[in-house]
Amino acid sequence: MNNQDIIRRFHAVKATRTTIQDTWDWIERYISPYRGRFFKDERSENSIEWRRPWVYDATAIMAAQNLASSLHSRLTSASTQWFGLRYRNEELNEDTEALAWLEESAKLVFNALQDSNFNLEVSETYQDLVCYGTAITFEEEVTVDGVTQVNFKSIPIKEAFFEENEKKQISTFFRHLQWTPAQIKEKFGDKVPDYINEACEDPQSVDKKYDIIFCIYNRNYDNKVDYSSKTIAPEKRPFGYKYVMLNSGDMLGEEGGYNEMPAFVPRWRTTSDSQWGNSPAMIALSDTMTLNRTIELNLKAVEKALDPPTLTTSRGLIGDLDLDAGGLSVVRDINELTTFESKARFDVTYQEMERLRQNIESYFYIPQLLLPPMEGTPASATEIAARMQQLEGVISPTLGRLQKDLLDPIISRTYLILYRNNLLPEPPQSVLDKGFNGTEIEYTSPMARTQDSSQVQAIERFAGTIASFAEVNPELMKIPDWVEMMTDMAVKMGVSPKLLKNKADIEAETRKERQLQEQMQQGAAMQQMGDGMQSLQQAEGNVANE
After folding, report:
1. What is the mean pLDDT of the chain?
2. Which residue from 84, 88, 85, 91 is spatially nearest to 430, judged by alpha carbons?
3. What number of CA atoms fall less than 13 Å from residue 279's CA on the CB side?
4. Burial 483-503 (b: 16+ CB within 10 A, else e)
5. How far apart are CA 406 and CA 118, in angstroms?
6. The whole model's pTM is what?
7. pLDDT tens per residue across span 33-51
């Protein structure tokens, strides 16, 4: 893609979202402050609005932050490994050595994420997702002191634009940057236009910011390129990228390439006929603005109640009315001077404010996220589990979309980066012999475990039912495959494969125990026969002696 095509297509995608930006701007004002005004050019620190005098209530702000924080802790917690890998070849899933290697690879991917800034940036991604319905996360491969690492950036949605292909996948990504000459020079060295070098030397242009377009595009190469190779030249990689000056079209640096699309665009809920998503904040926006306006009017009413206006006739006052402490006002008739009583119904106002707050919290699932204040006995484990299941049920479509559009690509790209840099262990011979055939990602976070808990409970109920009826008919114990059932239950409960025996080993032990049991039975039978023969011989001898 040439430079002019990049600029032309950037302006085209930017023009298509002017309508939704108006909604985003209101969300930024009342629900997600300090993420960047969409219709304001903030090129310096002095242009940022740190004071928010129009915000009278922070219910929506805190509710959005609580929902985003809850998603972070329950989906991608830093304290526990929240995903694992599983073979698509079921024979390999029964091989202990192959499973141990795959578990070690998953652990190395998780450690790579923890060693990076993933946890810092993904929290911003969840915040954008909850507020704007669409979020942008970028994963870059970097080298620090000769060690390959991954680095993440949650890009503010005001800077990001993208195009989709027919499969609703990101085909072209644009980011609108504003950099000073010094920043451009530091990034690209001498491979910059002459006017950038001149601006670096000009004291009056030091703080000037230039508009830059960073574009990632699909090169649409044919299948002749071997993308499975660990080393692919940047110009041969499936995705290319350029930095282009927006006004002049000059390219900064050189064209580069990515092996995978490094930009991920999750959406809370997809919107029909639009590439942008919708969010809980969009639903809560009307009530949030109403609540702020109600509190603003209530404050004015309270001011009138605390310091009511004074009423008098046109001839009742001589001079100005002085209500300061120790002030003196001259009146013709004291009875013509009185105060105005507004008779405002503050109880009705407070009821309406509380109703709006409850509505806003329900839009962000706060009743399911937070337990009520403890009064008397604390919440039981059953109640907490029920709340988790309720929350998982109402946002299940979003969880699936998050896994597909955000977490799956991050895990896959991190795995491939480690693989290309020889940071993963060599697979065992069993994996090489049976064929790899790819892996599947299994999520083990608390919220993902909630999805499996219903199946675990079903197995428990089934096992309990069988055990109770088996007292009447012992043949019923033969119905379940107890080994398979308990193995499946252990996996759903998050038990490490290292703690489970291989199915083949279990079958071998079972055969050995049966053979030993048969030998013991045969020995016992032979001994009984021998004892019987001995008794018979003794009896015959006794008869002969008689």
Report:
1. 82
2. 91
3. 27
4. eeeebebebbebeebeebeee
5. 12
6. 0.77
7. 876 666 566 555 555 666 7
